[in-house]
Amino acid sequence: MFISTADALLPTIAWPTPIEMSRIYLPLIFTLLLINTREKLFYFIITIAASFGLIAVKGGIFAISTGFSYRVLGPEFSHYGGNNEFAIATLMTIPLVILWLREATDRRLKLALMGAVPLMFSSAISSHSRGALVTMGVLIPLLLWHSKRKYLAVPVLIVGIVVAGQVLPEKWFARMETIETFE
Question: What is the CA radius of gyration of the chain?
Answer without folding.
Answer: 19
